[in-house]
């Protein structure tokens, strides 16, 4: 059972990021008002990092009690700790180093020089254990969309897109560098209360249109990323160009 699917189109990428940041702050404030805490799954990429920077710079930023937010990642590049290409590194620079958070509530995917060395399967299993069973009903899970329709590190017709039982998997031979990653699977993503897919640019127009037209998740993995209560597509006008 999945909730409503909504599409919001902004004129440009920076406006999209600013609006998504405002929307996110409101969502986290509301979650904390309801339950005392909130949970957020971060994504990397240009748009994801821009959203975090807008949150950081927002005058409403501290309406959120950041010490009562659990941070997770939808996927991670399996690289050494502190590597510039790791989503964690980018998230810390964009937002996490600038807010009063609880380090124990920042749930990082292990790096390639971490507890399990260069073993992405062990890193994936450890993250699945940290998430627990069932996976938390994350308040908001942020995702990007790739030119071929991938989301998190779930690529078309890859082992990850066919995974039905594991919640976190190692991903090898990614068509985009770096080749080795750790990713939530679609069953884990679909536990989120809300899933927000954010993407910009004309290169994304085809996969966006196909996903929203009901494409198979094996062909367009982003089509399988759905929230329990809501799936929100946040697009710029170029990415929305092929929508009816």
In short:
This protein is of the alpha/beta class and 244 residues long.
Record keyword descriptors for this entry.
244 residues; alpha/beta; six-stranded parallel β-sheet; 7 helices; globular
How would you describe the overall organization of this protein?
The protein is α/β, with parallel strands linked by helices and 244 residues long. The protein is built from seven helices and nine strands; from the N terminus they run βαβαββααβαββαβαβ. It has helices at residues 13-35, 45-57, 87-94, 120-131, 159-162, 186-189, 205-212; strands at residues 4-10, 38-42, 69-73, 75-77, 140-143, 168-171, 181-184, 194-199, 230-236. The strands form two sheets. The protein has a six-stranded parallel sheet with strand order 1-9-8-5-2-3. Strands 4-7-6 form a three-stranded antiparallel sheet. β2, α2 (45-57) and β3 (69-73) form a beta-alpha-beta unit. α1 (13-35) packs across α2 (45-57) and α2 (45-57) runs parallel beside α3. The longest helix has 23 residues, at 13-35.
Task: List the topology elements.
Layout: E1 4-10, H1 13-35, E2 38-42, H2 45-57, E3 69-73, E4 75-77, H3 87-94, H4 120-131, E5 140-143, H5 159-162, E6 168-171, E7 181-184, H6 186-189, E8 194-199, H7 205-212, E9 230-236
Parallel strand pairs: 1-9, 2-3, 2-5, 5-8, 8-9
Antiparallel strand pairs: 4-7, 6-7
